[in-house]
Amino acid sequence: MIKKAGAKIFAKFIHKKNQKWIKNPLWAQQKTFDYLTQKAKATDFGRDHRFDKIKELKDFQIAVPIRDYEGHRPYVDKMLEGRASVLWPGKPLYYAKTSGTTSGAKFIPLSKESMPTHITAARDALLNYIHQTGNTDFVDGKQIFLQGSPILKKKEGNTIGRLSGIVAHYVPNYLQKNRMPSWDTNCIEDWETKVDAIVEETLPENMSLIAGIPSWVQMYFEKMIAKTGKAVGEIFPNFSLFVYGGVNYEPYRPMFEKLIGRRVDSIELFPASEGFFAYQDQQNDKGLLLLLNNGIFYEFIKVDEFGEKNPKRYTLGEVVLGVNYVLIISTSAGLWAYNIGDTVCFVSLKPYRLVVTGRIKHFISAFGEHVIGKEVETAMQQACRDSTVQVKEFTVAPQIDPQVGLPFHQWFIEFENPPQNMDDFAQKLDQSMQEQNVYYQDLLKGNVLRTLVISPVSNGGFQQYMKSIGKLGGQNKVPRLSNDREIADKLSLK
Q1: Which of 69, 160, 333, 346 meets the CB 3.0–4.6 Å disulfide criterion with 111?
Q2: Helix axes 2-23, 115-133, angle to 10 degrees
Q3: Helix pair 438-445, 422-436: axis angle to 10 deg
């Protein structure tokens, strides 16, 4: 009881404290910009880009071009060799190792200034939920975070690990006794073995909060049900809050409600190795509150203009509702005008809330249609609405050269509960896509494309694919769509 009361008091305090930057967003961003550029003047990057001459944002935008990780790599390589004050003063505390670039692994620096922002943002997301709902039921129960191994490796004086594993070292003491799984279990590298061990550990416990990427939490739930024959909500009657990030939860929601046996509250987070950007601050609003006092300065480029030679870089004060932007960040870990690859769309400007619409590299535009992740997820959600259809996972790819007929978009879907009439379901998906994307509609009307085709994926097919490329579990996600058939041709179909 004391713990719950204390949580409410702390939640109220943090909520009040955060109102300062929420109500003064442009001031908060200007303050962040000034801090970052002043702090990094004496770094290699600061000297190379004349930070001493930067008086206002336009100076910065002229001096610092948009770069992705590959553009930062020469500086990061110097840092990995032991050089200090390259991108940011001093040496990084850690490097978060991720995959996915054209030239191998990425090593994202985490500084003594940036590292606490990851922890604070996650904490504030939970405290905000408490303040908004008054629900503290999860505080007394056990809490599980399905994540990568916390084992950190030393390489030439650098400490390297997965972000989720690094964060595990920063869990406050007051949460440690309630936190699961055990250290030994968390250190298991093989994901399937790890989930089996987590099932055994958590079965007898009073689980109240479960967090992780939906597809991997789903795997945990399914194993739990297979072992007990009971719904997750029956196994854990006090399970009341699901925290997730990385993907849109809505396509998974019907499946999760079946696995759990009831509806539970959820909080969406928008974290990455490069920074913690936003969290869902309202239960009745799917928009995510953009964190403006978190050591990150934001710029935005319209997706439609991104391919231009020098696209306009919009500030927070210049963004408008309903436009798809590429997210550009400068951080207190020394990433400058950095393209993280995510696309976002603002759904509110007071306060600034956004939704993640996809990845700039993950789209289909084989015929000029430029279909994005948000569109296929919305179509799936609408097609499943008011039906018994349940989807475990899906991805979409173009079929440019079919053996018969016109080209089409091919939807690879792993069903938990398939539709009774697959053609009708395909028609619903297609209709939603046409309503959302006029270019796609024009291609159909112009007989360039034909109606989408559904290819059911065998049970466990997506997990098998992720395992085959060494990305089973942890922070890894199946791309919603791609402009080639690299994934499509490796999936096992029914």
Answers
A1: 333
A2: 110
A3: 120
Backbone angles phi, psi at 114, to 5 degrees: -85, -35
- Terminal-residue alpha carbon distance, the chain: 52
**Token output for 433:** 């896509």
- Regions of the chain where pLDDT drops below 50: 101-102
Residue 107, SS3?
strand
Q: In whole angstroms, what is the distance from residue 325 CA to residue 299 CA?
A: 9
> Is 479 inside a domain boundary?
yes
Residue (of 343, 354, 341) closest to 274 by Cα position: 341
Measured CA to CA, the distance from residue 307 to residue 287 in angstroms comes to 27
pLDDT at 175: 62
Q: The domain that contains 405 carries what CATH number?
A: 3.30.300
Residues written for the chain: 494
Q: Maximum CA pair distance of the chain?
A: 69
Which residue is listed with tokens 């935005």? Answer: 300
Q: How far apart are CA 359 and CA 340, in angstroms?
A: 9
What is the gyration radius of the CA atoms in the chain, in angstroms? 23
The pTM of the full predicted model, rounded to 2 decimals, is 0.81
The CA distance from 195 to 217, in Å, is 9
- Give the torsion sign (CA, 33, 35, 37, 38): positive
Give me the pLDDT at residue 102, please. Answer: 46
Confirm whether 220 is domain-assigned. Answer: no
Q: Please state the domain count of the chain.
A: 1
Is the Cβ–Cβ distance between 436 and 378 less than 8 Å?
Answer: yes
Residue 421 is encoded by which pair of tokens?
Answer: 């009439």
Q: Which of 395, 381, 373, 376 is nearest to 254 (CA)?
A: 381
Torsion sign (Cα): 354, 58, 112, 8: negative
Q: Buried b / exposed e across 299-315, counting CB within 10 Å, b at 16+? A: bbbbbeeeeeeeeebbb
- Domain span at residue 416? 373-490
| Interatomic CA distance for residues 96 and 77, integer angstroms | 14
Strands, sheet with 408-417, edge to edge from the N-terminal-most edge strand: 390-399, 408-417, 453-456
**Tens-digit pLDDT profile for residues 362-409:** 778 788 787 888 889 889 999 998 888 999 999 999 998 888 889 999
pLDDT of residue 99: 66
Contact 339/316 with Cβ under 8 angstroms? no
**Alpha-carbon distance 344 to 339, whole Å?**
12
Nearest to 377 by CA among 274, 231, 480, 272: 480
Contact (CB, 8 A) for 403 and 465: no
Report yes or no on 453 lying in a domain: yes
Burial label for 417, CB within 10 Å (0-12, 13-18, 19+), is middle
> Cα(215)–Cα(416) distance, rounded to whole angstroms?
13
